[in-house]
Amino acid sequence: MASKSLTERTANDVMHSRYATADGFMTVADGIQLMGQHNASAIIVNRRNEHDELGLVLASDIAKKVLAANRAADRVSLYEIMSKPVISVRPEMNIRYCARLFAQFGLSLAPVVDIQHNVIGIIDYPQLVAGWGAN
After folding, report:
1. Structure confidence by residue, pLDDT tens digits, 84-102
2. Residues 112, 90: contact at Cβ < 8 Å?
3. Spatial distance between the Cα atoms of 124 and 135, rounded to a whole number of angstroms
4. Of 44, 42, 45, 46, which is closest to residue 58 (Cα–Cα)?
5. At what angle do helices 125-133 and 95-105 cross, to 10 degrees?
6. What's the chain's Rg over C-alpha atoms?
């Protein structure tokens, strides 16, 4: 199969699966362990019901909102520090538009979600650049 040109590469082509999913009531301490177990760069916080939205916790959220604030990781829940709602991308979105979206909204990563709103991967700057540079 021929490789795709830059104009044809999509989020689906370059996304990765280094993320974990968790309930918002999980403690930050447990979330840190979960990230380590999955070699995850992010925790996707599950929806509570079909009318809810995904949440997102990054290591930077933990550092800024728990560590720097001198809060006990075993007494803080993920829902207290997550970003919500999350800007996500479609699997068929061109990586050039992903990069523009990241720049426009100050994102460092975004979940890739299918038509049923299920997370199927994560896209971030390293993946975008690697996908752009790949032949």
Report:
1. 999 999 999 999 999 999 9
2. yes
3. 19
4. 42
5. 150
6. 16
pLDDT at 131: 85
User: Omega of the bond prior to 126 within 30 degrees of 0, cis?
Assistant: no
Task: Please answer whether residues 45 and 68 qualify as being in contact, where contact means their C-beta atoms are separated by less than 8 angstroms.
Answer: no
Calculate the alpha carbon distances from 26 to 21, 30, 34 in Å.
10, 6, 10
Checking if the pLDDT of 19 tops 60, the result is: yes
CA–CA gap between residue 108 and residue 102 (Å, rounded): 6
Q: Which two tokens stand for residue 121?
A: 């991967």
What pLDDT, on the 0 to 100 scale, is given for residue 49?
92
Residue 133 CA, chain-centre distance (Å), reads 22
**Cβ–Cβ < 8 Å for 56, 38:** no
Q: How far is CA 69 from the centre of its chain?
A: 23
| Its pTM surpasses 0.70 | yes
Contact status, residue 124 vs residue 11, Cβ threshold 8 Å: no
pLDDT at 3 over 90: no
The amino acid at 9:
R
